[in-house]
Amino acid sequence: MLMLALWQAGTTPDWVPPTIAISLAVLALSFLAMAAAVGVLALRVAGQVKKVGVLVDGLQDDVARALTAARKLTEQGQDLMVLVRHEAGAFAQTSRRLRRKVTRGADRLEGKLEDLETLYDVLHGEVEDAALDVAAALRSSGRGDGMLGRVRRLMVPGR
User: Fold this and answer.
1) CA distance 125 to 70
2) Pairwise CA distance, residues 8 & 99, whole Å
3) pTM exceeds cut of 0.70
4) Exposure winner among 25, 111, 156, 158, fewest CB in 10 A?
5) Residue 114: phi, psi to the nearest 5?
6) Helix 147-155 vs helix 16-142: crossing angle, to nearest 10
7) How far apart are CA 39 and CA 26, in angstroms?
8) What whole-number distance in Å separates Cα of residue 93 and Cα of residue 31?
9) What percent of the chain has a predicted confidence (pLDDT) above 90?
10) 35-89 pLDDT, tens per residue?
């Protein structure tokens, strides 16, 4: 606006051109200072970017090694699971075989116990018969009729 007023007046005061020149010089110096600051900042950022790049490269190497170790560990885990499955299958097979043998042995044992019970019944009957025969023989020998009565009279005085 001032410019328009001055332009309309037709004459410019003497202080305006040097003031404009000084302000343009200050603006140019300001832009130069800003460019220098941006340049210095760019150099510092470039240095930091290099440092970060080296750090990232190291981290990439570490990550690659960690992934390799994780893959190896996974493979070993899979191998272990195969071994465990095989052993569990063998254990189950052995358990089934042992269970069949125990069942067959128990069945045979039951048969033997039944045979033993039958034998016991037969022996019991025989022992009862023998005991009855002995008792009858002793009764008849108690009267003194038989051979045992005579032996008894010899052995036991007073009869």
Assistant:
1) 80
2) 121
3) no
4) 158
5) -65, -40
6) 90
7) 20
8) 89
9) 68
10) 999 999 999 999 999 999 999 999 999 999 999 999 999 999 999 999 999 999 9
